[in-house]
Amino acid sequence: MDFSHTHYGTVDTSAIVRKRWASHFLLRSDPVINKYLDRKPSQTLEEALQFIRSIQANNLLYWAIVETFNGKVVGTIGLFNVSNEGNTGEIGYELLPEYQRQGMMNEAMKKVIAFAVDILGIKTIEAFTHKDNQR
């Protein structure tokens, strides 16, 4: 499924707003966040921006998770690896350590899953976590 030229608007709750952001580097370079992810942390802002550019060209949807009272980007959540038929997809996410265990990701996941099922018609959504990731 190709999302590169589609705008689905904003999914808005107290925790999540879809938008572009430059502070993505903090998430991509944080050693705690990247410890269990299958990627190398970004070493430069340019590396993080390359990832953002690749999002715009590929078949995935990506949202910033923002504190609504100050607009600070504290995490991301994405829907990717969507099958050509649009039946299945994978959800992935990251959240700055100081914002973990506050229910923000739970809220964001519910909204993105509802969007995937209700709007895109996805029937199966997978998520994978590292066995040692206890946060």
Keywords:
five-stranded mixed sheet, 135 residues, globular, disordered N terminus, Aminopeptidase, 4 helices, alpha+beta
Describe it for me?
The relative contact order is 0.20. The chain has a single domain, classed as 3-Layer(aba) Sandwich (Aminopeptidase). It is α+β, with helices and mostly antiparallel strands. The chain starts with 15 loop residues before the first strand and ends in a 9-residue tail after the last strand. It is 28% helix and 20% strand. The chain contains 4 helices and 5 strands. The chain has a 5-stranded mixed β-sheet, with helices on one face. Strand 3 and strand 4 (88-95) form a beta hairpin. Pfam families: Acetyltransf_3 (PF13302). InterPro entries: Acyl_CoA_acyltransferase (IPR016181), GNAT_dom (IPR000182), N-acetyltransferase (IPR051531). This is N-acetyltransferase domain-containing protein. GO terms for molecular function: acyltransferase activity, transferring groups other than amino-acyl groups.
Question: Mind sketching the topology for me?
Answer:
Layout: E1 16-17, H1 24-29, H2 31-34, H3 45-57, E2 61-66, E3 73-80, E4 88-95, H4 104-118, E5 124-126
Parallel strand pairs: 4-5
Antiparallel strand pairs: 1-2, 2-3, 3-4
GO molecular function: acyltransferase activity, transferring groups other than amino-acyl groups
Domain N-acetyltransferase: 15-135
Pfam families: Acetyltransf_3
In short:
This is N-acetyltransferase domain-containing protein. Pfam families: Acetyltransf_3. This protein is of the alpha+beta class and 135 residues long.
